[in-house]
Every structure is written in C-alpha cells, then in structure tokens.
Design a protein that fits this description.
By secondary structure, the chain is mainly α. The protein has helices at 2-7, 23-31, 39-69.
Length: 91
C-alpha cells in the first residue's frame, strides 16, 4: 500500500490474491487479478498488522517478566565457538 503510494507514486493498481507460492496458484492469481485496489481491505489489513505487532510486543514483555519473577533460566542455543559456563547465570 505505502510502496504503491510513495515509491511508485500511484493511487491505484491491479492486485493478485494468493495463499501459496505454487506455480499454478500464482498463474491463476495473475490471470484473475483484481483491476483495482480495494482500499477498505488494504486499510483493514494494515490495521491487523499493527494490532498483531502491538499485541506481540506486550505478550513478549509479559512473558519475560513472568520468567524473571519465577527465576526460570533458559540457556541460549549453543553456537560454534568457545564453550560457555551457563550454570550460575540467572536472568
């Protein structure tokens, strides 16, 4: 939506709708694309995106606070390199 408005400087465009990235579905989507953007759908999608983002941030914060409160320690995934001593580390 913003790419079309600000980068391409267009007010409208055709739109393909697809659920998977299979060749058949993409070809079908291209052949049956909508001639115009449904702005109500576009704005609703953007709103869902922001709500998911805000909800995710708050849920992550709440989970981290709960982990800190009950002193659960989850060691990070091991990566190649020198071995680390995680036994005495508490969040």
């Amino acid at each position: 939506m913003n790419i079309m408005k600000y980068l391409c400087n267009q007010q409208d465009a055709s739109r393909m709708k697809f659920s998977t990235l299979t060749k058949d579905e993409l070809e079908n989507s291209y052949e049956n694309k909508s001639p115009h953007i449904n702005w109500g759908q576009a704005i609703a999608g953007e709103t869902r995106h922001y709500l998911d983002w805000f909800y995710g941030i708050n849920l992550s914060r709440a989970l981290m606070e709960a982990i800190k409160t009950i002193k659960i320690f989850l060691p990070p995934k091991e990566t190649p390199g020198p071995k680390k001593n995680w036994k005495n580390l508490i969040i």
